[in-house]
Amino acid sequence: MMKSLRTLTVALAAAALVPFASASAQDAAFGVGTKLVNLGIVTGPTGFGGGVEVGLLELAPNLTLGVGGTFAYQSQDVLGFNASTTWIVGNANVHYAIPSLPELDLFGGLSLGIARTSVETILGSDGSASTTVVGINLGGRYMFTPKLGGFAQLGLADAPELFLGVSIKF
User: Fold this and answer.
1) Three-state SS for 31?
2) N or C, fewer C-beta in 10 Å, the chain?
3) E strands of the chain, at which residues?
């Protein structure tokens, strides 16, 4: 398990460097054709996550539909129990651009996917289960440069519940 986590971490770090090889002509933080990679930490208790999103359709002036996917992993050790959850979800978000603040991207949307939870005890017993998850999220992103920004996302029954990190536009 630890070897696969290290491999995933290296792959996410490599993916973070790829966007810097290409340029973006987008002025707004998010619009049709925008491609983002999000990397960050997942709180409650500890974890990490990553995702991608693409601006797909202009719904109205200053409103863009984005679609993508998110992977998140959380782990917790409590009183001899080790519980971990892995999420793989697809998401659709509506992004709102404030014309006077083009660096700011406010978004909200829905997620649908699978969560796999595993529990191990010090006594050697363990178990796991997969469930379908449907969630909602709200968030914001601020682009510090044309390619690099920070984001915060809150989710309800979503993967993850609190996701903080960097966004890289390519």
Assistant:
1) coil
2) N
3) 35-42, 46-60, 63-78, 81-98, 101-121, 126-143, 148-156, 162-169
- Per residue in 46-104, pLDDT (tens digit) is 899 999 999 999 999 999 999 999 999 999 887 878 889 999 999 999 999 999 999 99
- Choose the CATH number for 2-169 among 3.40.190.10, 1.10.287.110, 3.10.129.10, 2.40.160.20: 2.40.160.20
Q: How far apart are the first and last CA of the chain?
A: 31
pTM: 0.79
How many CB atoms are closer than 10 A to CB 144?
11
Matching residue, tokens 């129990």: 81
Tokens at 120, concatenated: 């191990």
Determine if the peptide bond prior to 19 is cis (ω within 30°): no
